[in-house]
Amino acid sequence: MTVFRCAAAWIDNAVSGPVDIVTDHGVITAIGPPDTTGDDQPESLPGLVFPGFADAHSHVFHRALRGRTHGADAQAGSFWTWRETMYALAGRLDPDSLHALALATYTELLCAGYTAVGEFHYLHHRPDGGRYDDPNAMGLAVTDAGAEAGIDVTLLDVAYLSSGFGKPTVGVQQRFSDGSIDAWADRVAALPSALRTGVAVHSVRAVPESALGSVAAAADGRVLHVHLSEQAAENEACLAATGRTPAALLHGAGVLGPRTSAVHATHLTAGDLGLLAGTGTTAVICPTTEADLADGLPSIAAMVDAGIRLACGGDQQVIVDPFAQARGIEYGERSATGRRGTMLPAALVGAATVNSHRSIGSPGGSIEIGAPADLVAVRTDSARTAGADPDQLVMVAAAADVAVVVRAGEVVATNGIHRRFGDPGEMLGASIARAWR
Ligand SMILES: [Zn+2]
After folding, report:
1. Residues 379 and 395 in one domain
2. Does residue 9 sit in the same domain as residue 135?
């Protein structure tokens, strides 16, 4: 049993405290006023203690692209030219180099306050499309890395069968494809049952309409993720090929629902919003990646008005910072509309914690009895946070303000230093250099 003494903690989506949080076997067993009469030596957590954050949408290998895609050459053109650089990276990785990169990146995420991540995994096969001896070698490289870093990974195994409507996969996309939806389902079924897994449709571009229902069936009660309308060009191609929007196509195949998350949801019609709201589908907003890739801005006010649950994703890991992701939702809306306060700070924290955990099937995201003992203590006396109203800390804090990360009742990172692997910068540098070799 461990007692964490908090001057302040985020409980029931508000600041309260001082409070003792008692944990046993990785679970919160009691919450109450500080008990100064007992013999137990409490572990003091500084600042404001949040529940662990979740990154609901990660492409972990994209971390090797950070700071390398902004040149004045073709990389700078659009999402589609950026994708060429991403494909060049995707073509180089093998299970060992992917494992090293994922281990470093998940270590960075954990030190930043993320205790769970949904890995949208589509880098399945050899560069020529052939199978590894274990057809799930790449996925297991990712989940092994998560276990070593101490972050809770939901492996969202992605179906990817075509490069566009009626077009076969080409080039590096062969790595992503199982060739048929049945082969994809067989491989997914062979994943170890001890892992927490979900399934995913890469996008309506990459999974034919006739195969969408098979992915929904394979979910079998697990979470299902799908990239939805990230680019206007996807909507145009979908309308031209099927006469329907991507959201309508997915809905017709039974893909939308309360365990489904639509990632990005940037270019939605009023009808699309109604489909997401009516089915209880979550929208995962990835503000820093969407800005980086010039995706455009989703209508947050329309989603909030429709009652759509919002979660947060880091996506290409261009910035690993749960606070920047959360407030990025509100800042994008302010820039687009000239209005402030569509998402108040408590709603942003809810999106980054409980909603993001729920999106990936994780039980975390709240400080309550019975919840995982995952705690993130954030400094309130740093150059960024000093003087801020604690209720509004999400609007000013940065990953660098994360003082202590507790996972399953144990301190796993302190002031950006991982208990086992130290400063993530060194392992990131080495693994990124290796990835590009
Ligand atoms: Zn993505």
Report:
1. yes
2. no
- Check: CB of residue 82 under 8 Å from CB of residue 293: yes
| Interval between CA 183 and ligand 1 midpoint (Å) | 23
Same-domain status, 282 and 176 = yes
Q: Specify the 3-state DSSP secondary structure of 403.
A: strand
Separation CA 71–CA 88 (nearest Å): 16
Q: How far is CA 279 from CA 49, 251, 309, 421, in A?
A: 34, 9, 11, 43
Q: Which residues pair with 296 in a beta bridge?
A: none
In 10 A of CB 370, how many CB atoms?
9
pTM for the full predicted model: 0.97
Interval 37-92: pLDDT, tens: 877 789 999 999 999 999 999 999 999 999 998 887 655 678 888 888 899 999 99
Residue 374 Cα to ligand 1 middle (Å): 26
Q: Please state, in angstroms and rounded to a whole number, the distance separating the CA atoms of residues 352 and 325.
A: 8
Dist. CA 346–CA 350, nearest whole Å: 6
Q: Is residue 16 part of a domain?
A: yes
Indicate whether 335 and 309 sit together in one domain. Answer: yes
Asked whether the beta carbons of 377 and 412 are under 8 A apart, the reply is no
Rounded Cα distance, 55 and 153, in Å: 10
47 and 57 inside one domain: no
Q: How many angstroms is it from 59 CA to the middle of ligand 1?
A: 6
Kindly list the catalytic residues. 264, 315
CA of 314 to the centre of ligand 1 (A): 9
CA of 408 to the centre of ligand 1 (A): 28
Same domain, residue pair 60 and 30:
no
Last residue of a domain, one of 327, 359, 391: 359
| 29: containing domain | 2-51+367-422
